[in-house]
Amino acid sequence: MPAWKTSFFVATALLAAGWASARQVFLGEDSDLFRPADSCPMDVISCTVPAADTCCSPKYGLVILAQQWTRSTGPSDSFTVHGLWPDTCSIVESQDAPLLDWMSTYWPSYKDDNNLFWAHEWNKHGTCVTTLDPKCQGDDYVPFSEVPAYFGQVQKVFQKYNLYKALKQQGVVPGGQYALVTFVAAIKNKLNVEPRLYCRGRVLQEVRLTFHVKGQSTYLPAEPYHNHNCPKIIHYPSKRNNEAI
Predict the structure, then answer these.
(1) Distances (CA, A) of 21 to 108, 121, 145, 226
(2) 3-class DSSP state for residue 226?
(3) What is the pLDDT of residues 48-79, one digit of tens each?
(4) Which of 102, 122, 219, 240 would bridge 211 by S-S if both were Cys, CB 3.0 to 4.6 A apart?
């Protein structure tokens, strides 16, 4: 196994181990009390049921899928993943080599080592997905399987909500300038989700989509609680070139 892949899984495994141990030590959770996830109702929607079992519905159930548009990073015909971020309702070679290959293409870091970026995303965001807690997995739990499970969940949501494809089908392609309302409408018309756009100056950097979670892993579009920070006219640059901004 290449050294970079080994170091990533070692880092995430250590983070996962620390998380699980901390929950057992500080929260008094015992392995005999672990609840199998297959006993959960499938139709519960996050943030709608007070005091819902966190193995069945994520405690931090308002979820944001953040997709980046960075000119020097990732395929020229795709956004890349920034993260899948659980938020409060009030506002994997050894286990999955193809997933790791996908992450290298569609979830790269544009400034740091990929391993550090992925470990950060797992430590800060993945560990907040309560439905992936080891205690929720029952007798079938495989140590550290929650790590590739989280990244695999991101992959599925990212592929379903393909921003580049949705925009292209509406005639919005890289290399042009577009009205903010046109860009937003193109995404909403094709994907039925209200996006929030983030820019540096007038240059598009990121699009965020907000969801509730039905059951453990079905994402339902939700009303975003943040505003755009882009101007009325935005620049959607082509990747891997030196076009003037």
Answers:
(1) 29, 19, 15, 35
(2) coil
(3) 776 678 888 887 677 889 999 988 889 999 99
(4) 219
Q: Domain count for the chain, please give it.
A: 1
Is residue 73 situated within a structural domain?
yes
Tell me, yes or no, whether 128 lies in a domain.
yes
CA pair distance 195, 64, nearest whole angstrom: 10
Q: Which residues are catalytic?
A: 82, 121, 125
CA dist., res. 79 & res. 162, Å (int): 8
pTM of the complete model = 0.70
Is 241 within the bounds of a domain? Answer: no
Which residues span the domain enclosing 134? 3-27+38-236
Say what the pLDDT of residue 89 is. 58
Angle between helical axes of 146-160 and 93-106 (0-180°, round to 10): 40
Assign residue 172 the CATH number of its domain.
3.90.730.10
User: Does 242 fall in a domain?
Assistant: no
The residue type of 84 is L
What percent of the chain clears pLDDT 70, i.e. is strictly above it? 77
How far is the C-alpha of 49 from the C-alpha of 58, rounded, in Å? 11
